[in-house]
Amino acid sequence: MRLVRLRTHAFRNLAPATLETDARFVVIGGPNAQGKTNLLEAVWILASLRPLGSPRWREVVRWGEDQAVIAGEVDHGGDVRRLRLDVGTGTRSLRLDDTVQREVGPWFDAIRAIAFTPSDAEIVSDAPAVRRRWLDRAAFTAAPAHLARVQGVRRVLAQKREALQSDRPDPTLLDVLDAQLARRGAELVAARVRTLDDLRPHVRTLHEGIAGGRGALGLRYRTAAVGEGIQARQDALAAALAQARPDEVRRRRCLVGPQRDEVGITLDGRAARTYGSRGQVRSIVLALKLAELVAARARGDRPLFLLDDLSSELDRDRTGRLVAALVDLDAQVWVTTTDPAHLGALPPGDALVLRAEDGMMTPQDAVPKRIDG
Amino acid sequence: MADGPDPIEAAVRALRRLPGIGEKTAARLVYWLLRAPDGTIPAIVDALTRLRAEVHPCRVCGDLTATNPCALCADGRRDARVIAVVERPQDVRAFERAGEFRGRYHVLHGAISPLDGIGPSDLNLRTLLDRLRDGTVQEVIVATDPDVEGDATALYLARLLADVGVRVTRLAHGISVGTEIEYADAISLGQALHHRRPIGGDGG
User: Interface pTM (ipTM) of the complex?
Assistant: First the structure.
């Protein structure tokens, strides 16, 4: 999967432009506030249909314009898919190979990406919801059908929350909603656990290697939906829900379900969230993100890998190891950095270095000098 | 000059209230109507007025109809042993276009959705229970949408009908017919896999 053409119009502060490249490494350099991250975000939005971080959609449209366009072509080993996303006020429309799409399924067959940004440190250090979101995204990257599981559970929970607001909730209605939550919740949990199991060995290897982390890294999913297989998880969750019912009705809140689960990340048995230093947190997050890419490769998948503001996140040693690993992994990499020389050796003839200035991207002739050692 | 807003503006605004009609389309329709042959507007007005005056829910199935019971309920050739329960009258049209179903219908006029303020008591369920009372109906096919609300409605119905002694089934969903698996998108394929069924006995 290689994004070979990217066009933006009225997207944030980017000058309308079309970028064509078959490079495996696209490096966007230049000082801060010149549009580097915006270009990376355009790629991310195309690949995920969400803004980077969690700003509002409205903000991606350039001030004074009605509609932003992000369009691209993705080369799948000779088979080129054309994608176009229009973002208007409160509206978004998708065109895949010039055909309007109502469902996102086919879209995500055409493009997918894994992003590593400075704010990802929150995966380790923030509330459990952020870790669940990371795991759901990883599961989605591995199998887009995961999106339906996440949305389904979210919807059931919204319905249940509403039903619990009523003064005397209909018990049969709550039974039905709990049955749905048990079923869909068990499927969601099983998929999350499976994803974590797939990632774990890679995370450990990468943590000790490229990320330069020390200590035994533990990843554990904690849930009320315990058991072997979906049916067992469903039964366990149903039992927990039945037990919590009086409490839930009294407090008018959903107290049990996958929305309360935790992805425990430990270093030498201690919670990384509480005890991890800034450097340790970075190593862990890098290992998590890179593990997604390695696991994808093991499946024969080649999502794009996006790195934002690399130089601020990693020291030169780790950056060098990371870039060398990415070269081996054969994914297309889009990276922003204030200092392209920081990246070390890029594959000769397979790298495009752009300089961002005032929302304009200018290709640089000179590939940064190889740095030996 | 007449009082009130400009008639063109008023017409555009009225049409814009229809689903799927925006400002541009509404304006195009209004200007088309202004040039349309005599009798066009009265015919439309008459048709719309009759809608309100003559269409009612069928007392048997709840479908919207000008006759009571509706033509489908009155048709003695249809199989009275099977009832397909749908959310909307449009769903009855969809089944009829498909032409495969020879049973009868029941229209719920909605699906359970606390977020939209729709509980079980807001659905057309009482008449469904009435229809099941005499033992003629042997199977209820729950043909609600394959979303959370459709699922909740199906589960609710299954519980409601558990003691009635009818077979309750749910419409299958998955890959569209005509789609080769290679080209099915991942989400649809995942759904289809999830709703797989045993082979044999029933011919497939």
Answer: 0.76
